[in-house]
Amino acid sequence: MRVDHGENRSPHHEPGAYRPMETLLILVLALSFDALLGEPRRLHPLVGFGRYAGWVEGGIRIADFSAPTMRALGAAALTAAILPWTAFAWLAGEWSESSAWVRILFSAFVLYLAIGWRSLLDHARRVAAPLRRHDADAARRSLSMIVSRDTAGLSEEEIASAATESALENGNDAIFAAIFWFLVAGIPGVVLYRLSNTLDAMWGYKNARYVNFGWAAARLDDVLNWIPARLTAFSYACCGAMDSALQCWRAQGAHWKSPNAGPVMAAGAGALRVRLGGAATYHGSLQQRPLLGCGDAASAQSIEGACALINRALALWTATVALGACALWLWGAV
């Protein structure tokens, strides 16, 4: 969090820096926008970016080459897709320096677009609600909107497990990592993170098409999520059953296929005292995944528990930012 201790801007004020209370206000405004409005249903910038990224891929990936060449082309595509928009975010931030309120509102709006708090909870609860009625068909349809695994034929426990896993993992990807990068690097950091995460979702598959071309996108997302994922895992532990959360994180987190999703989901499952993981089918191929968590089998209640855990963790993050902002403000006022 970059801080200007003076009440008035000085000639040495760093462009784009936020005062402590500005940081807190931007975060609260962004979360309020998301809670009230949810994700934009039309003209979402990430949808437009997805089309742009597809155009970049089509222009750079003109043929299949050797693995090293495809990795180099993927890195070039990643740079061409992300760099212009990150630079634009920085320039827009410079433009907004003319007014404190313009800067605050602009920053809050961009952060709002980068997070998906309400959308995450809404999608998870659309799975939980029919599960409570034992309407597995409706639950499977809702689940298919948020996971990449095959949902046909899943039992109620498997549906609940998949939805709980998705909620816990996306708590980091869609909320806490975006907030982390805002605190570290302002709006350019938010844009860099959100676009890299989107490209990982588009190009990060380990199939014949993307195993090499998407390598750079997957690795960048791993790097940008490394610290936020562990902060998220610790937050889940603080806001749930801490002993089992930390134990599951230590024992199970490193065995998952993703270096960041593993700690997040293991800690979250332990915090909820629920069993997740296990075998799942992706695109017709059965994958034997490690078990996560401990305690009861997944159910509609565990999905609701994951949503509540995310809310408590978000309250913890917001309170921590508020305490830090107040402490820095008081320190600067002395």
Structural features, described:
This protein has one domain (20-333). Residues 1-13 have low confidence and may be disordered. Strand 2 and strand 3 form a beta hairpin. The strands form two sheets. The protein has a three-stranded mixed beta sheet with strand order 4-1-5. A two-stranded antiparallel ribbon has the order 2-3. Helix content is 69%, strand content 4%. The longest helix is centred in the middle third of the chain and has 48 residues, at 156-203. It has 334 residues and is mainly alpha-helical. GO terms for molecular function: ABC-type vitamin B12 transporter activity; threonine-phosphate decarboxylase activity. It is a multi-pass membrane protein. One of its GO terms (biological process) is cobalamin biosynthetic process.
